Structures are given as C-alpha cells and as structure tokens.
Amino acid sequence: MLLEALYHVPRDKWAYAYDSSTIHLRIRTKRDDVEHVYAMTGDKYNWDGTYQEIEMEKAAHDLMFDYWEVAVKPKFKRLSYAFKLTAGRETVFLLDTGIQHEAPTPPGDHYEFPYIHEVDLFKVPEWAKKAIFYQIMPERFANGDPSNDPENTEVWGGVPKIDNFFGGDLKGVLDHLDDLVALGINAIYFTPLFVSPSNHKYDTVDYKQVDPHFGDNTLLKQVVEACHDKGIRVVLDAVFNHCGEQFAPFQDVIKNGESSKYADWFHIHSFPVQVKDGVPTYDTFGFYGNMPKFNTANPEVKEYLLGVAEYWIREIKLDGWRLDVANEVDHHFWREFRQVVKKANPEAYIIGEVWSDSLNWLLGDQFDSVMNYPFADQVMEFFNGGMDGYDFSNEMGSLIMRYPQQTNEVVFNMLCSHDTPRLLTRVGNDKRKLKLCVVFLFTYYGTPCIFYGDEIGLNGGGDPDCRKCMEWDPKKQDRELYDFYRMMIDLRKRHPALRRGRFRFLQAVKNDPCIVYERIDEQMHFTIWMNNTGKQRILSHPMETEDWFDALTGDGVKPKNGTMEIGLDPYGFRILCRKLK
C-alpha cells in the first residue's frame, strides 16, 4: 500500500454528523491500491461493550484516489475510531497519531468524535431534497401588465441586449403559474426583483421595494401566496456583495465625500469617488463602477442588509435566498446571515453563488447549498465528447467527495443559467445530447434547476443572448421536448431513490464514452444506461435477477444468462428499475 496516500481528519467532510444518531466517516487511499477498509469503532468509556468493526464501502474515486465511506450509529452519541486497511497479506492501521502495522490498543491514539450535539448538526431543509426548481428572469418571462412597461419597451421576442427591455413582470409570472404546475415545478428561483435601472436588476437601488416595472410589494406577496397555494416554494436573489451606484448611501458619498456618514459603508481608496482610466477609486463588482462593493464588516451595513434578509422572509413568507457573488463577502457576515434567516424561517433554503469548491461555506454555519457550476461544466464536457466514461466517473467522484452527504442531497444543480449559454446551444443544438444531460441531471444527487424556456427549446449564446424572452406560442415551442422534461420531472418526484439513493458508476471505462450507473435505496434500484456516441451500441452488465422493468414504459426487461444487454440508439438512453420492497 502507498501509505503516503492515506488521508483522514476528524472533521469537515471526513467525519461529520449526518443526523442526531449517525456519524459518517470517510478515508482516502491510492486508486486501486487497497482491497478492504474497516472502521474500528466504539465508545472510549465502554470500548469492550460497544466495539464494532465495520467494513467500509468504496463510495467514489477520482484519477488518483479511492474514497471509502461508512455510516456509524454510536450507542451513546460519541465515537472513538481507527481504520484497518488490508491489501493481500499487508495490514496497516490509521490512527490519530499516524500509521502503524501493529494492532492498536483501544481507545488510545484513536480518532474521536466527542459527541453529536443537536445544536451543531448541519440541517438542510427537507423540502429542498424534493424540489424541482425553475429559474425565472422576470423581465424576460411574460408581460402580464403592459401599463408598467419601461420607456422604449421593445416587442416581445426581440433580440436581447445588455440594456433593452421587453416588459416582463410579476403579473406575467402570476398568469403562468398553472403552466409551471403542469410541468411539475415545485420551486421558483427569481433573479433580482428590487428597484434597479437595469434589465437584470443586479445593481440594486432600493432593497425593500419591488421594481415598479415588475409591480409592487403587494403584488409580490400575492405571487408568493399563489405559489404556496399551488405547492411552489419561492427563493429570491439577494445582491449583498454590492449595490447600484444610485443607491442612496452611495449617492451621499459621491456628494459629501469623506464627510459622508456612509463613507465607511464601502471600500473607498481615495476621494472623490470616481472612475479614473477605467478603474474606480473604490472596490466594485469586477471593475464595474456602477456596482460599488459593500463593506459588510461595517456594523451599520451588516445591520441594514441582515434587516433586508429578515424583512422579506417575514413580509412575504419567503422560502429562501440565493446569494449573488457570495464568495466575495466575508464569512463573518454569512454566519450572522444564516442565524437571522433561520430564526425567521428554520426551513429557509440558502444558496450561495460560488463557482468552485465551496466546502468553506458548507459546514453548517453559512449556506445550505451552492450553485453547482462545476457539475454543469463536467456534464457539458462529457456529453459533448470531451472525455470518456472513465474520466467522467473520476470527475463526478471528485465532486461527490467535495461535500458532506446532506449537502450533496441539496446542492443546486443546473445545466445553464442567466450567466452561461443556454443548454441547447451548449450541446450544439443536438436535442439527443440535451436529453442525455437532462436525464443525468434528474437521476443524480442534488436539487435540479431548469432555466426558463429550456423545456420548450430556447437556445442562445452567452449573456445577453441567453436571456431571451420566453416563447408562449405553442406552435413555436418544442412540445416533444416539453413532454420529455415533464416525464423526467415526474419520474424523479415519484421515486425517492432518485433523490436520496446511493449513486455509483457500474460501467465507465477508458476510451468508451458510454456509461451505466445506478441509484439505489431501500425500496427501489435504478440503473441508467447511456450511449454517448453517434452510433448504435449494445451495452451489457452482469445482472442476476429477472424482475427489471423499463422505468418509463413499464415493460419488463430480463437479462440472459446473468447478463443484461441493452441496445441503444445514437445518443440514446434507457432507465431500468426493480422493486426491492
């Protein structure tokens, strides 16, 4: 065994309480180097009476490492533990004090999980595990009230630009809620709704007023109430990293300079505040002078923004916040933010916009979830032919091992958004590839999200082209694609195994872009077969039982001589399942 590859620390994603009675342990070994790993566990005050040696499961792998995992239910909520690893005739033990070849004397030198404290548990909202999100940019979704249109509003369906308007509003959303229910949506994520001069509203001017081009606060409350009546949760976008240049406190700084009582609300390097040679004299989002960055360490700023977060939770019974540019705001602020929001609504779902490894924000004291752009990037690369099944399984294994299980169950997975090209465009306008991506989305860990219009075939390049108007004419919609989305949403909603079951690749090999993987819980076992090539393929995998059926048609599917063989069209898929109980 390569001892240098062994890794475990008694914290973070490696040893954590999953619930009030369960501790998850993980350990890393070199890829294909170790045959068996056992967790040697017990209570340090009663070792002999509680000792268990539990074999761990190889839960995932990446290019260099295997990751082993086990769930332990300690009798007295505390745990001492070590690891025994075997390969051939070699046996080693990994302890808190290091690696040794002799069996340890318990519980000395063992790792410890001192106690499962209820108050320390990282609890995520249960409803988010069942959610099917739909992202809406209100300005581009539907124009329900032309009377509140901005000046120079263009004809619906025109070419999107960075600064043009088409008149979408909250009344338009209200008018189409039944369409979302018919699709199967049970959660909405709105991009910003508050007063702002732009069409995207990420340069907020008034954080407690709905932009008049969208409606007003009363209408927003009506929309949320209507959503709740139809079983739809609502999450709003919070822009707390920066504001718009027309925000009153920043205007006061422009007017009064250093003497402004709001001067410390922002990160200002020199006065007067201005943009010199393209670079602002104050910190901003990117280098956009119209988006000055808040000093969230300032107690007054903190009080103001936390007040905004609490206000909307209480005022409209909001179900959560999506946090823009969350990685550029200090951790102290987000810790207080979580306390304020969860006090107002313990079931609020908090999603941070972080585009990379986000573990620092996902340890139970800040966010419940993040926008999982790394997931989208790997899915796009694989289904566009950029890697084989072996590499794809490595990349997905690495993503799975980034976070604790409760985070994986609600991580916010999308295939595109207002900040990326649209899904159909990302797959070269090949609807077959799009369907493979969507099948993977709805049969993988996490909380799936659809960007408005993807379900009826909207395409578009990067911003602003991805922000097209929703197409409401059925004759111009791809209704076959719509039915496919509705079918996949229904399948996921009906089967908990597709939401909480174990995920594992069954077939993912070098130089072959076809994959087979499974989702399994106590009730159901699913296997998903994908031909990610332009040729017909027959995929096979050992399967002994004969009680499999097609999850979408209900037709029985039987293996031959212990091997299941599935014929697939180019870029085709099939989902099989069997009942375990």
UniProtKB/TrEMBL annotation:
GO molecular function ontology, one term from the record: hydrolase activity, hydrolyzing O-glycosyl compounds
Residue ranges constituting the Glycosyl hydrolase family 13 catalytic domain according to the UniProt record: 135-492
Coiled coil: none
Matching Gene3D superfamilies: Glycosidases, Golgi alpha-mannosidase II, Immunoglobulins, Oligo-1,6-glucosidase, Domain 2
Signal peptide: none
InterPro entries associated with the record: GH, GH13_cat_dom, Glyco_hydro_13_lg-like_dom, Glyco_hydro_b, Ig-like_fold, Ig_E-set, Malt_amylase-like_C, O16G_dom_2
GO biological process: carbohydrate metabolic process
Keywords from the UniProt entry: Glycosidase, Hydrolase
Pfam families registered for this protein in UniProt: Alpha-amylase (PF00128), Alpha-amylase_N (PF02903), Malt_amylase_C (PF16657)
Family membership: Belongs to the glycosyl hydrolase 13 family.
Name by which UniProt lists this protein: Neopullulanase
Species lineage: Bacteria, Bacillati, Bacillota, Bacilli, Bacillales
